[in-house]
Amino acid sequence: MAQAVGTAHLETSTGLDNRKLLMWLFLGSECLFFGSLIAAYLLYRDRSVSGPHPGDLFDIPFTSVSAFVLLMSSVSMVLALAAIQRGNVRGMQIWLFTTAVLGLLFLSGQAFEFTEFNHEGLSLSTNLFGTTFFVLTGFHGAHVTIGVLILLSLFTVSLQGRIQQKNSLNVELAGLYWHFVDIVWIVIFTLVYLIQP
Amino acid sequence: MTLAEYRRRGGVEPAREEENVADADHVEKHPGPLEYAQIGSILAIITGVEVAIYYLGLAHALLVVGLLVLSATKFSMVVLWFMHLKFDHRLFSTMFILGFILALSIFTVVLATVGGKLV
Fold this sequence. Notes:
The structure holds two protein chains of two kinds. Chain A is mainly α. Chain A has one domain (17-194): Four Helix Bundle (Hemerythrin (Met), subunit A). Chain A has helices at 2-5, 18-44, 54-57, 60-85, 89-119, 128-159, 169-194. In chain A, α2 (18-44) packs parallel to α7 (169-194). The termini of chain A are far apart. By secondary structure, chain B is mostly helical. The longest helix of chain B is centred in the last third of the chain and has 25 residues, at 90-114. Chain B folds into two domains: 3-87, no CATH class; 89-119.
């Protein structure tokens, strides 16, 4: 139904589309979720009795490239939305696919980083740093994975001609989720990687 | 429109002119691809500056303040332009800002009471 209704949404008490309102409410609650995980990390990162510690493992140049890749995926996502809002379906498909590829690139980098850390002796149960680090970045990675699946689903649906200018809200909602995942990484990159005890 | 009419149309409400005009206005208020690309370039430059500052060997307190300011700038730019909070209805901003302020408050209280430190 959402597709057929498009931007001419049903009447609501606020006059706004309930799906978009709900998405913002969800993102507000996600702030609490990630805020708790980041607070837990900052509390426990330097309370480990044994190593390895953050300074022994972090590869800042590598993580900087990952952060850059995710940031650029936000640019391609918003370009996808701009394209469909102007009726350019082909442009939207190209940018959506680019965003998904950049998301996969980020996930590959995270998988590589986790593997490297594991080889260095850090696991979920090694020490407090390991537990809080893997839980925080792991949950973020899970969010990116869900985002990539949403993007690929949208891309597939658009190939079937089911996404047009009139229902660009579907792309906007996916974009809101994707940008949120990006801003969470902006915070993680600074607080976890760049600011070390 | 009655519920019966709405069901006869297969759950589709006829597009109303004023809604279409409002939606067109809403989309027109969004920046164009060029502005998005410019904002993306600024974000990339800020990220580069963050990494450069990290290697500059500044005093730790200065490093923390500098990085937090740059990070907050990037965060705000993405939320305001890419997520369109600058252009959208204030209720959307309220939903997000309430969650964000609540998270920030809990974050601060937890770090202050349990003894976590940023610097």
